[in-house]
Amino acid sequence: MPASAWAQAAAPLKADTGDTAWVLISSALVLAMLAPGLALFYGGLVRSKNVLGTIMQSFMILAVVSLLWVLFGYSLAFGPDKGGVIGGVDWIGLNGVGAEPHPSYGPTIPHQAFMLFQLMFAAITPALITGAFAERKRFSAMVLFSALWSVLVYVPLAHWIWGGGWLAKMGALDFAGGAVVHISSGAAALVCALVLGHRRGYGTDYMAPHNLPMTLLGTGLLWFGWFGFNGGSALAANGVAVSAIVATHTAAAMAALMWCLVEWLHRGKPTVLGVASGAVAGLATVTPAAGYIGAFPAMVIGFFAGLVCYFAIVWKGRFGYDDSLDVVGIHGVGGILGILATGLFASKAINAGGADGLFYGNPGQFGVQALTAVVTAVFSAVGSYVILKIVDGVTGLRIQPDEEATGLDLSQHNERAYS
Question: Which among 408, 409, 43 has a CA at the least distance from the CA of 222?
């Protein structure tokens, strides 16, 4: 991801076919993470009466956010900087975003390829939040919340960190979305869980996942697609892309193993759900650092991702909030851990376009990363709360108790997943 914007090239830029192909493939891989990857991952974790409604949320968010991004979201996130806060309106409707490369947003790929890649990030981020309010949010409220959140929260954050905004100018490192994607969605998830309250029957009814093979299939698609999520963020088919993929895979493998071992010791049995959760935690945690670190730091990050995220979910019950599918513990906690780890392990020897972290002689970078984590979490939490109150006034947030007992599939869509 670009750390700053608006550098002027002395010579005309030319798209490279190999780099262009890689970014287009990576865009498709990130799309597969959302639909069907995340849709199946979340769909398997809910009860059978809610599986279609849960899957529907991912697909609808993909459609709505894609259109908003093309119309004006991309311009506001990555358009010419306005005071470090937001992008301009120069590229509304993709005006001026075509086949020519942009000097900051991929000098060897068409500008529109970069836009498409970023579109997939914009779509998957609000979809992650849906796991926090699974099984109880009104469909119309979900659509309106996701649309407003993508414009009012995601777009400014993307500009601040990736589009030449004020955090980018401070030197914040977020290779593929530890703050922009994971901390922001985790903070929003916590607020959603608190505002909507517990599911009907929470703590007494049986609410185990209805289809773990479906969840494991979704996990595999997420792991597969994450190679494009992180590797594609190099914006070229080069050594940084390779290093990012190696770091991604290594961290995911270590986190899956670590989660499995900790759960085995803590609960007496290793579980499929634990391996799936650990893998996703490792993938989320390594995301901000992936393009700046080698394999061994990735292994260390995966180790702590599996350990810390596991206990974040175990301790969820002590705090009393109902984050249905553990978005806070995996993406929020993992994102914070990853952003801070970037400030420790980042190395210019891996990526000359980044910066050295604390362990490579630059303690100031850790401070910048900590500030980035705090700013992202607070901005997303406050913005999410305001948006929820607006949506509640317009449509109401929760389905009725009788609808919740019936399930999202019938109450919201008049369909059954299983006959």
Answer: 43
* H and E: helices and strands count for the chain: 19, 2
Q: Per-residue pLDDT tens for 164-201?
A: 999 999 999 999 999 999 999 999 999 999 999 999 99
**Cα torsion 144, 36, 312, 345: sign:** negative
Say which residues have a Cβ less than 8 Å from residue 207's Cβ, sequence separation at least 6.
Answer: 47, 199, 201
Alpha carbons 76 and 80: distance in angstroms, whole number: 8
- Dihedral sign, Cα of residue 366, residue 367, residue 371, residue 374: positive
56-105 pLDDT tens trace: 999 999 999 999 999 999 999 999 999 999 999 999 999 999 999 999 99
User: What is 98-121 written as a DSSP string?
Assistant: SSSPPSSS-TTS-HHHHHHHHHHH
Task: Provide DSSP, 183-239.
Answer: IHHHHHHHHHHHHH-PPTTTTTS----S-HHHHHHHHHHHHHHHHHHHHGGGSSSSH
Please give the full DSSP string across 56-77, using - where no structure is assigned.
Answer: HHHHHHHHHHHHHIIIIIHHHH
Q: What is the pTM of this model?
A: 0.96
> In the numeric block, which tokens belong to residue 215?
């969840």
CA distance 45 to 131: 9
